[in-house]
Amino acid sequence: MRGITEERLKEVFSKLYWSTNDDKELFTALLSECTELNAWQPIDENTPKDRHVLLYGGHVPCCQMFVGHANANWSWEPTHWQELPKDPK
Fold it and tell me: Which end of the chain is more exposed for a tag (fewer CB within 10 A), N or C?
């Protein structure tokens, strides 16, 4: 899923809204600012080690705390991670 932060949306919209009367140009500019939301990241030195994250290692993702290496009782090695989604309201 792709998206744009509210801050960036306001910035791009306010910059272009007054400079163009072309809705298509405005829409295209906003769409080009969209990025992948909560994308999978490779396991590296930036992987959080202080909280639970989603881990992936070639099968169904699971929620675990990554401490810099695979847990001794895991039968798999994680290759990617992503932040957990926010709790539902």
Answer: C
Q: What is the pLDDT of residues 41-65, one digit of tens each?
A: 898 888 888 888 888 887 766 766 6
- Name the residue type at position 6: E
Of 85, 81, 39, 88, residue with least CA distance to 64:
81
CA 49 to chain centre: 17
CA distance 11 to 48: 30
Residue with tokens 């895991």: 74
11's tokens: 């910035």
Which ranges constitute the DSSP H helices of 5-75? 6-17, 23-32
Alpha-carbon dihedral 30, 33, 38, 42, rounded to 10 degrees: 160
pTM metric for this prediction: 0.54
